[in-house]
Amino acid sequence: MKNNKNSGSVSWESPSNIALIKYWGKKGNQLPCNPSISMSLKNSLTRTKLTYKPNGKEPLSFLFEGKKQSSFEQRITKFIKNLSDHFKFLTDYQLSISSENTFPHSTGIASSASAMSSLALCLCSMEEEIAGVKMVEDEFYRKASFIARLGSGSASRSVYGGFAAWGESNSFSKSSDEYAVPFSKYTHPVFQDFQDAILLVSSKKKEVSSSAGHQLMENHPYATARFAQANKHFERMLGVLRSGDLEDFIEIMENEALSLHGLMMNSTPSFTLLKPNTLELIERIRSFRLGSNVPVGFTLDAGPNIHLLYPKSEKERVVPFIDSELSQFLENGKYIVDEKGEGPQKIKM
Ligand code: PMV
């Protein structure tokens, strides 16, 4: 980088991710109670643009899909205010932020991971431009992951393509509670072009926000057992991602999804986010797998929609199965075709 800048714009596009091992329960300042691992998506992205200029009197402005959104604006203003220890320059600049999603509104796809990771990446690029110094690539992404985590835990994993792990574990020496690390270079080729069909059972807003959800784990009667289970699943999942054993992959992934919902169901207060159609779909997916031997499995976020994961080589058998057997249980028959993505992209300004 040749010279430092005083004003400018930076822009990043960053993906949503789907957790295979779930982060559910946090401690301290956005630290996870257990390690998690996720797959970053390709088509479900947030594009964020950050414009900065030396301090004027105006507060931060935020536009989502071209419109003012006070609730997001408040959340982002608070997030940025708390970052002054990590970006000393921030108090000297006035920021305008705009963002848009490539996935349709209200489809139940978690957008905080893509939104917060793209914003964190923009802030790191702004830091580089102001200093006029380019960071070492690994350090750049580590800082972006750390910052994204402060906005939304799962966002820490979205700064990497492929698979990313977040949360300390004895089974992965590079792991940390503070930031996520990429896991892709260790994965078996069978995961190379993994598909994710997002089956939309309901696009209604979540009944439980994830921050309220994490809080449910604070006095949960099964918390200790859950964190032990997640640690074991994490270790097994790392092994499976290396070995390519799809049977074990599916077993662990589905168990994680149902454990997450089990924990929500027996929390106080209790939440049942699965809908009758979610259960119908689960039964049909399992019996299709049993009957056909196609390695296809499901996972769930904190909502009723199903992520159906399978290797691309099975697409010709899975897509007709979705269309003929599953789509009748989906809202307007709709599903989103996604797959493993390569991670965030800086957009040239
Ligand atoms: O990042 P948060 O605070 O929105 O929490 C995400 C929680 C889950 O999506 C349910 C699981 C996960 O690890 O992504």
Shape: globular
Which small-molecule ligands are present, each listed once?
(3R)-3-hydroxy-3-methyl-5-(phosphonooxy)pentanoic acid
| CA(first)-CA(last) distance | 15 Å
**Stretches with pLDDT under 50, minimum 5 residues:** none
**Number of discrete helical segments:** 8
CATH architecture of the largest domain: 2-Layer Sandwich
Structure notes:
- The protein is an alpha+beta fold and 349 residues long.
- It has 2 domains: 8-187, Ribosomal Protein S5, domain 2, CATH 3.30.230.10; 190-339, GHMP kinase, C-terminal domain (Alpha-Beta Plaits, 2-Layer Sandwich), CATH 3.30.70.890.
- Helix content is 36%, strand content 23%.
- It has 8 helices and 14 strands.
- It has helices spanning 70-81, 112-131, 137-151, 210-216, 223-243, 246-265, 276-292, 315-326; strands spanning 8-21, 26-27, 31-32, 36-54, 61-64, 67-68, 93-101, 163-166, 180-182, 195-199, 297-300, 306-310, 335-339, 345-346.
- Strands 1, 4, 5, 6, 7, 8, 9 and 14 form an 8-stranded mixed sheet that branches. A 4-stranded antiparallel sheet has the order 11-12-10-13. Strands 2-3 form a two-stranded antiparallel sheet.
- Strand 2 and strand 3 form a beta hairpin.
- The two termini are 15 Å apart.
- The protein binds (3R)-3-hydroxy-3-methyl-5-(phosphonooxy)pentanoic acid.
- (3R)-3-hydroxy-3-methyl-5-(phosphonooxy)pentanoic acid binds at residues 19, 22-24, 36, 110, 112, 152-154, 210, 260, 301-302.
